[in-house]
Please model this.
Amino acid sequence: MKKRIFALFAGINEYQRSDGLRTLSGAEPDARNLEAFIREMGADVDFQPEILLGPAATRSRIADGILTHLGQAGSEDVALFYFSGHGLREKAPLAFQQTNGTAAIESLACYDSYGNADTFGLANKELRYLLHKAARNNPHLVVITDCCHAAAATRSGMMPLRRSGDPERYQMLPAREWRHFLFADEISPERPLNAQELETQLPQADHLHLAACQAEQSAFELGGEGVFTTHLLEVLRQSGGAVSYHELRERTASLIRSRTRQYEQTPSIYAPKGSFLAEGAFLGVEGRKSKIFVTVTVGEQDIRINRGLIHGMPCENDQAGIAIAVFEKNHPEAGAVAEAQVWKTDIASSEIRLVGTATLKKDRLYEAHIEGLYQRSFNVALYGKDSEEAGKQVVREAFRDTFKKNIAENPGPDTDCIVVLHQNSITLAHPDSDYVSLDEQKYLPLTKQMRDYSPGSAKQIVRYLEHIAKYQVTHNIANRNSTLNPAHFPLNIGIGKWDYPTRQAPWKDTEGCFEIRLGESPTDPQQANLFFTITNNGQHTHYFCLMYMSQRYGVYPNLFDSTAMSFSLDPGKSKEGNMPYLLEPFISDFNQPFEKGLFRLFVTTEAFNLAGMKLEDLPPPERTAKRGEDKGIMMGMAEKSKRADWVIVDYPVRIINMAFKPI
Model:
């Protein structure tokens, strides 16, 4: 059966309102070019586009297109909304001032926006409202925006006018009357909404948003083309569309950075349900979406990959089940140019040796895929009554296709994860939970449940399992032969109010776990600033990186540096950082006493980078039809000791649910 792609493209060069909205050159060609690329993706795609250009791209027609055209997409389909044009800001109404973080809301400037007193832009909250309604059948939903401060189109932030290359004053338009919002009859404007109230009244759809730039940046046109869309299409053409969203963003950002150095424009990626979609393939195109590619460096004396012991690579004498395939960079469709084996594993890299007579050229760029690293020690079992055999069979097939082995038919003592099947629903559970009750009211599912036994649902559950397997490899990293003393590298954690620098130390229980209370009473907002200080009390300079591992299987190695690069500390020196935190709403939904987390401090005697270890949170479980809230975390040569060494120091935390009700 062909994959159906319902797509809505909106591009606007010239606006009905001439003052303040300069004419663009590339917005409409951008929309046409992306539509043409998707149309040519292959015969296996049933592509159903709707294109709104110039005067056709009015606010009402864009809104109607999202609801009626994209709303046709089912659970096995793709729904895509693409916008290229100007962005505007207007004064935020009272209801959104608390959650917006600024005095403005952002809107996409439609052709007729602000042409008279009763026409407005498509506000970010309205887009959120429309996407939720369009996603009622749970499609693979994607939004791509090419406009200034595009990252704010489906979340909070600032969106000034899109620029063509010259500085231009930001506009702040007056607040519209509440009756002019699309959801005016469904939400009361009388008081500010907090984050949980906003989620209840304006729930977010599971979607992925690719934006032309960060929230604080501008998007540009050069030579009559949008910089973002032009380079996005270049990456898509190079890969044939078989590229993950994360890789698409990274490669697009790299091209923009190398070719337009005079402009600061970094594409962003965002998904409100933990960004798990970001690891999937563009528009669901099968290919390398589940593969992790690492950098290959061809040196004078050796060939190395940028993965070592600190990334979870096993020692050279423990390589059973692991295979390495080397590809020419940007040309994976041509197949592997060589097979390789690990010869020597170091702290932050590994030396590989090619198998057979294959050779690599020093003037070419290569990357490698490591097969088997995440699958070999991850044990999964099925659980369900005999009446659930139809569901078990689709899970067996999907699991075998990805993990290259059979799933266990019953849980055992070595089981890491349980696939629970009950009444046409597929759920993941921890072996220690009360999954045998087959009642989601009695245990906490590990992630979002699938509500049918379709092949698509089974594939999604297996993608979750693959994600958990990757998390487990990171969680199991340890150096049992280290000579470094963990006590020499203390991590101090402090708690402060959301917008106030006052700190207090969290309580530490007898099990060595930090207990963190984000409020003082059940009615307080479950949010706070976490502060941390790392100190080097050793005798030598060491390199550090602080990682946070969440209950929803997220791995965030970039608490101090957005690139996840280690930093050095001389003896006696310290470094401070902070992290805003929100209690996960599903903790309250399932009446859990606390949320679990882990701060993990990596300490080595040589520089390293953990960027490749990042994992976004899995989507939260849903107790009812109510959708979950955003992820809590909101981010972003010295003398060496004589012997290379490394150690990991763990600091588990419990974020207390102040609204917990003992039963």
